[in-house]
Structures are given as C-alpha cells and as structure tokens.
User: Fold this.
Amino acid sequence: MKKKIIACEGKEYIIEWYFNDKGKSESLAYFKDLPDDRQKKLARLFLLLGNTGKIFNLEKFRYEGDQIYVFKSSPDRLFCFFFDGSKVIITNAYEKKSAKMPVKEKEKALRAKENYIKRVKEGTYYE
Assistant:
C-alpha cells in the first residue's frame, strides 16, 4: 500500500506527514484518530499555510525555536519544520493538557527532522 504523505498541496507549500524508518507516521495516526470537526480545523490551517505561505495568528501557528513550528488548534498541537523552500513536514502531535509544552514533544520533532534530512540526502526517504 502506498503511503499518503501529502496532507495539503497549496500554492506556496506542500505539507507532508513525516514517516519514520519503519514507515509509520505518528502525526498522521494522531490526525486520523481525531473527530471530524477537529480534523477540519487543522486541515483549514494546513490549507491556509499551504496557499498563502503564512499564518499570522500566533494562537494558530507559532515558532518554537530550533526551526520547529507548531500548528495549534485547541487542544491539538502538531509540530513541523520547513524544508527545501517548498515543503512543510509535520513530525509529531499531541493533545495539550497543560500550559507548558512538553519538552519531550519538541525533542521528538527535532529527532524526526534530523532523520528526515538524513534520509532525503541519502535518497531513501521517498522510496
């Protein structure tokens, strides 16, 4: 079965789900488990960023440092990074339960980013 890697294909960016070495996507699995109304809210954010290239509302999209960004649609948080000028890669997700972002979630996003870049350079990511 072919992986569904594209979450949104816009005029400015293609937004993709990150898949690990074993072919699993934590962020896509999280998204698919959400109720329809929450999926639609996130899909609108993907479409906005994909088509306009920007989301100015910090309550919806925020820079978290280390080239990691977060889509924010209460209570969902989806981490991502920009790659190669035209792609946004969604790495992992969680449901917000406290005021502070769990450090382990950002670390997970950074590890996924490193893995993605390594595999793209090796030519093994999109096989």
User: Anything to note?
Assistant: Residues 103-122 form the longest helix (20 residues). The helical segments are 26-33, 36-52, 103-122. The mean pLDDT is 95.
